[in-house]
Amino acid sequence: MSEMSDVNQPDTWAEHMAIAARHPRRVEIVVGLSFFLAILSVFALGWIFTQKGQPQIEGMMLFVLFGGIGFGMAAWGKYLMPKGPFAEEREVLTSEENQERFSETFQRGRVAVEGRRSFLAKMFVTATGLMGAILLFPLRSLTDKGPQADGPLYKTQWKPGVLLVDETNQPVHIGTLDVGGSLTVFPHGYTDAADDQTLLIRAATTPVAPPDRPDLEKWSPAGYLAFSKVCTHAGCPVGQYEAQYQKLLCPCHESTFDVLDGAAVVFGPAPRPLPQLPLMQDDNGYLRARGGYGEPIGPGFWSRGG
Amino acid sequence: MSMIGGRNRPIGMRARAAAVGKTAAVKQGRDLDERLGLAGAGRWLLNYIFPDHWSFMLGEIALYSFIILILTGVYVTFFFVSSGHEIIYHGAYVPLRGVRMSEAYASTLDLSFSVRAGLVIRQMHHWAAVIFIGAIGIHMCRIFFTGAFRKPREINWTIGLGLLTFALLNGFLGYSLPDDLVSGTGLRIFYSVFESIPLVGPWFVYLLYGGNFPGNAIIPHMLILHVFVVPILIAVLLTAHLAIIMRTHHTQFPGKGATETNVVGTPMWPAYAAKSGGYFFMTFAAIAALGGVAQINPIWLFGPYDPIRVSSFTQPDWYIGWMDGALRLMPNWETHLPGHMIANAFWPALFMPGLLFTFLGVYPFLEARLTRDYAHHNLLDRPRDRPVRTAVGAGLLTFFLVMFLGGAEDVIAVFLDTSVQAVVWTLRISLVVAPLIVGPVTYLLCKELSAVPSAGFRPRPNVIVRTADGGYEALPAELHPREQIEELEPAPVGEATVPEIIPGTEPELVGAGRVPRGPAPPVSAATAAAPSTSPSAIPGVRQVSREDVVQTPGRRPRGFFGRRRGE
User: Which residue has the higher pLDDT, B392 or B203?
Assistant: First the structure.
């Protein structure tokens, strides 16, 4: 092929093989300079490193190092190498002949499963299928680690009479909060329990209840209300009490709950109200849980029930 | 020998010297070939043609970012302690001294403040991750809108979508590992999302997190997934992705000499190897500069994760933003079944993305079926020439954009000084309406553009010249420099060989300056031959050809180094 073009058109591709640079000398200088800068930056990096390092200078030196090599290589390739353009014929991916010959070759295997041997094939499929079934055994072990029906997905440590404590395990007195104040509380002894976190707010000086459930005033001694702090949408801590509007706000996805209406959802993606923790005041003026939460706290899950 | 030497020439002194220099390399090459039979495949590889178009670089950015991710990731892994065990911090960062935090968070602080070059490598790792995902996204847009996914490349499109999925997953895992307040909130949200999976949700989260939230195993589990399982999946898919590209070759835009059965561009060796290698280093350089001077994920400002704390304006890394936005824009529905529940988060965070990605994954097959086009396609479409596909793509992008804005609804509300409710409702409505507007408008724009032949081309102005006798003449203006260059017909890559270098004459032989490049006479001849077709002919003004006017030799516009490839 190449001999042919030699004879007929000796210089057909000379222009393609020529380089793109009009001033190769300039390119050589620039490429050389960028490689030189890269070399310099290695020494600068070494020096910086011995001086305990400095992120900004390190980053810029790495930029010079990689950039110098990269720019030099790219300019070298672009201006000092055959500029083309060149073309290549695509290989033919598929042909019917190949497909047919493949099928014929594959049919060679038929002799292995013909006649009585088809029984062997069935045995083989059964054996490997049953082999897959043993995967179920480890799966069964895994479910032992799963949530149990009386486990923490369903129940918290809040029980009747449990003392409310703050993060530092200090009990909460009836005078701790002013109206409009809020505090994250835990059941006594469980200040690390993420699911037990409860937002205690003081909405008023006198008991508060939803308009349709006046009997719940007994859950709200001296205007204190306690709601699960785990959002019913995606579990973020509902920490923002906007006393002016009597709303609780989840900062993650902006679900908004009405404090005066049993933390009913007034806006956002949360599907259910925050469960309310019934409160009472003990003889020493400390706040205690009148009972646990009436339902699983937090977002929904498959086995939670309808 | 012909693969190296090429033509039969009388061997001169210089050439003989070169031949002696070559023998060592030739011998080594022969040794390898005799053992592995590499010469044939090697020649194929050296001749492999890469089309020259900037948009083909997008996938390379992704590929190179992945390499950088592995290099920097191995480094940061040496310093990371994958434990949720709580300790009191006594390290170099003074404001957090005495604070209770997990060992994971403390080790990330130590990496940032006490390890030399630790912060710059950690930030490079994070920047490389976001650039990796961004590059994949833009690369996919290029593939989609130009129809590069069509037969025979449908499988590669689906593999690419898998790569995007795993890149998103691993990005999220890596972002969550430091156990800071922002990413910990993300982990809490994802706990709720996984918990919502029908049938297996609660069991799955218990396994993943090691129990009820926060669990005691999530950080070590995430580390294994982040540095082992998902990277291997990415590497396997990436290998398949590249192998399929090599098998089917690149697509190409229509252009001079480009047909359905060839590839026009630059061969792998030497020009493309140099350019692409340089591009790798430039990607590395950009990421290093960002890692050095552009702060990313300053976890020491967020503080350690504590399940009872959260701040407003908590946004995930941008590539998860659309999923967070979907969670925020979702109405507060919950699906109740007898004895069971599908929680709210399932629909926006798992079902909807699953549906979207499934649609994207089967799109090539869907389009082939709907258009009944089962032919092989190696030439790319212009987006305007496929208005329906372009409209679908624009609609999908709009859908993602609205969700992404939804992830920042609180920030937008503060920025616009309005209520979050107003922003959320605007975005909820836009999520449905905006794609339905953008899609058809895109369709109409495409139709309009493809109906106007000159759309997208620079209009050729006329220059009005006053003659000596007071008349006016309209001359077609000189061509834009980019239009003046005659493109060469592509040369068959296997046949072109290196011209012999004669001592003392190298620059003249190899430099482009020797190539005759006249001042573009064909154009003026063409305009002279058909003056009436000049688009801006002014009635009453006599058209003359450029040959009638005395030309002053002007400086031809060109780049610093000479002409560019695309010209």
Answer: B392
Phi-psi region of B515 (alpha: psi -120 to 50; beta: other; left: phi over 0): beta
Kindly indicate whether the ipTM for this predicted assembly is greater than 0.85, answering yes or no. yes
* SS3 letters across B413-460: HHHHCCCHHHHHHHHHHHHHHHHHHHHHHHHHHHHHHHHCCCCCCCCC
In DSSP notation, B293-346 reads HS----HHHH-B--TT---SS----HHHHHHHHHHHHS-S--EEETTEEE-TTH
Spell out which residues of chain B touch residue A20, defining contact as CB-CB under 8 Å.
512, 561-565
**Distance (Å, rounded) from C-alpha B390 to C-alpha B385?**
9
User: What is the tens place of the pLDDT at every residue in B402-429?
Assistant: 999 999 999 999 999 999 999 999 999 9
Q: What is the chain B residue with the closest CA to A195?
A: B213
Whole-angstrom distance, CA of residue B463 vs CA of residue B507: 39
Which residues pair with residue B410 across a beta bridge? none
**Could you give the CA distance from residue B535 to residue B527 in angstroms, rounded to a whole number?**
11
Among B134, B128, B136, which Cα is nearest to B68's?
A: B128
Q: How many residues does chain A have?
A: 306
Min distance B354 CA to chain A CA atoms (Å) = 19
Percentage with pLDDT > 70 across chain B: 82
Quick: pLDDT tens for B431-451. Answer: 999 999 999 999 999 999 988
CA-based max dimension of chain A: 113
pLDDT value at B164 more than 80: yes
Predicted local confidence at residue B559, as pLDDT:
46
CB atoms within 10 A of CB B382: 16
CB contact under 8 A, B512 and A302: no
- Closest CB from B211, B277, B293 relative to A60: B293
Q: Which long-range contacts does B108-117 make (Cβ < 8 Å, 24+ apart)?
A: B108/B80, B108/B177, B108/B178, B108/B179, B108/B180, B108/B299, B109/B299, B109/B300, B110/B79, B111/B76, B111/B79, B111/B80, B112/B299, B112/B300, B113/B300, B115/B79, B116/A49, B116/A52, B116/A53, B117/A49, B117/A53, B117/A55, B117/A58
The set of residues, in sequence order, having a beta carbon less than 8 Å from that of B454 and lying 6+ positions away, is B535
pLDDT at B350 over 70: yes
Q: pLDDT tens digits for B95-144?
A: 999 999 999 999 999 999 999 999 999 999 999 999 999 999 999 999 99
The nearest CA of chain A is from the CA of B146 a distance in Å of 20
Q: Stretch B219-239: mean pLDDT, rounded?
A: 97
* Contacts of residue B90, Cβ cutoff 8 Å, sequence gap at least 6: B97, B98
Rg (CA), chain A: 38
Radius of gyration of chain B (CA): 30
CA distance A152 to chain B (A): 7
**Geometric angle at alpha carbon A235, from A202 and B318, rounded to 5°:** 120
Closest by Cα among B191, B192, B202 to A148: B202
- What lies within 8 Å, CB to CB, of B437 at 6+ separation is none
Which of A3, A11, A22, A183 would you mutate first to test chain B, the one with the most B CBs within 10 A? A22
Å between A120 CA and nearest CA of chain B: 35
Q: Which of A302, A303, A304 to mutate to test the interface with B (most CBs of B within 10 A)?
A: A302
Question: Could you give the maximum distance between any two Cα atoms of chain B, in Å?
Answer: 99
Q: Which residues of A touch B293 (CB under 8 A)?
A: 56, 59-60
